[in-house]
Design goal:
Elements: E1 7-10, H1 25-36, E2 38-49, E3 52-57, E4 68-74, E5 81-84, E6 92-96, E7 107-113, E8 123-124, E9 127-131, E10 141-145, E11 161-170, E12 176-185, E13 197-201, E14 205-210, E15 221-227, E16 239-242, E17 262-265, E18 275-277, E19 288-294, E20 301-303, E21 321-322, E22 325-328, E23 333-337, E24 341-344, E25 354-361, E26 364-372, H2 375-378, E27 381-385
């Protein structure tokens, strides 16, 4: 059974909030995936046979095979909590349960898609703040601001683009210290046209990939917030926010001003990337730019997975990916490992997000989600690790 460390959400799930160029839609997505869950259903029966529980819900409950579902309301505690479900039918689904649990659950029984479990300490009109509850994380703040930016018009500003800010300290929804700011685009136009999205994360961090361009479909722009595994012992500021670094042109192609789906040669100078670490390795000062790197290759960058090697690999019919490292501007220095996102070494077709189950990395069976990126003329590929752990 695949672990429940990593949770995966998608815009085509039943009950998932829809993202568009209108105000408040990104906050609705993050509220659902990070804090509240979605697709709340009433269960009409919940029983056990051996070590298998069967839940019966109203017709068309909408849960998918391998979804992680949060059960609540049972008087018998063994039934409550998060469960990875299987054997899904229109009206029922099943999950593992202890053999000594009661044969039938009682109470007002509900099920919903389980969130990442983050807290939302502050909110205001078109503004929201999110924070990990995990006591082993740095617990820095993510502030999302969907208030239309000054200069709305030809430069991508307005409801279609939000400010994504990392703060070391926030006293309320607007005021604090230690800020790093990037931009997350959610739509090409300020309208109600819905845009596909994917969110993958755990208790400390998450990736959000948005297919925001109507002109260039299936080119997802990846954004990140949260902690990363640091190479520095005792690192108290190994937290990062990543997105667009500028809005200085009128553009519809999602790779403009974005490097989060690029990989650079190790040692390449770090400029304005839209990828901010909370502080440098010295732990002093404030934010510092960073980028993803791999082996030396003469400088420059390319889109993740934008290679000439086909999928499947001709020699063994396989798929190959590699981890990436985070290189900070100071030094430059290799600061840590990029969590959750792997770089494909092949050109993988990805007209839609594509799951690869049973993938083995270093002897561990994993499930990957491959999503089309924006870099290298849309030939970049994002390979998210759905199994974890990411530390």
């Amino acid at each position: 059974m695949i672990s429940m460390t990593i949770k995966y959400f998608q815009s085509n799930q039943t009950g998932a909030p829809q993202l568009s160029g209108q105000r408040g839609t990104l906050i609705a997505v993050l509220n659902a995936c990070l804090g509240n869950g979605f697709n709340l259903r009433t269960l009409t029966a919940l029983t056990r046979d051996g070590t298998m529980a069967t839940a019966t819900a109203d017709a068309g409950h909408g849960f998918r095979e391998n979804d992680i579902v949060l059960i609540a309301g049972a008087n018998e505690a063994a039934y409550n909590g998060e469960h990875r479900i299987r054997n899904v039918t229109t009206n029922t689904f099943q999950f593992d349960i202890a053999a000594d649990a009661a044969a039938r659950a009682t109470g007002i029984l509900t099920a919903k898609i389980a969130p990442l479990g983050w807290e939302m300490p502050f909110s205001g009109e078109d503004r929201a703040v999110y924070r990990s509850r995990d006591v082993t994380s740095n617990r820095l703040f993510l502030r999302i601001d969907e208030t239309p930016l000054a200069g709305d018009g030809n430069y991508g500003r307005g409801p279609r683009t939000v400010l994504a800010q990392m703060w070391e300290v926030l006293n309320d929804v607007d005021n604090g210290t230690g800020r790093a700011e990037t931009m997350w685009r959610k739509a090409q136009n300020d309208n109600a046209t819905t845009r596909p999205w994917v969110l993958v994360g755990d208790s400390k961090r998450f990736w959000l990939a948005v297919n925001w361009s109507e002109s260039y479909p299936n080119r997802y722009a990846p954004y990140f917030f949260g902690d990363y595994p640091s190479f520095k012992a005792g690192d108290a500021y190994d937290t990062m926010v990543a997105g667009y670094y500028d809005l200085n042109i009128n553009w519809a192609e999602p790779s403009s001003n974005l490097v989060t789906d690029n990989v650079y040669s190790v040692g390449t100078g770090v400029g304005n990337t839209g990828i901010w670490l909370a502080r440098g390795y010295s732990q002093l000062g404030g934010r510092i730019n960073a980028q993803w790197v791999s082996a030396p290759a003469g400088g420059g960058s390319t889109g993740l997975g934008a290679t000439a090697v086909p999928y499947p690999n001709p020699a063994d019919n396989g798929i190959y990916v590699m981890p990436l490292m985070i290189q900070e501007q100071t030094g430059p220095s290799l600061r840590g490992r990029l969590p959750g996102l792997l770089c494909p070494l092949q050109s993988i077709p990805a007209p839609e997000p594509w799951k690869f189950p049973g993938f083995v990395i270093d002897g561990t069976q994993r499930e990957l989600l491959v999503v089309g990126g924006a870099a290298s003329n849309g030939n970049a590929r994002l390979a998210f690790d759905l199994t974890g752990p990411w530390d």
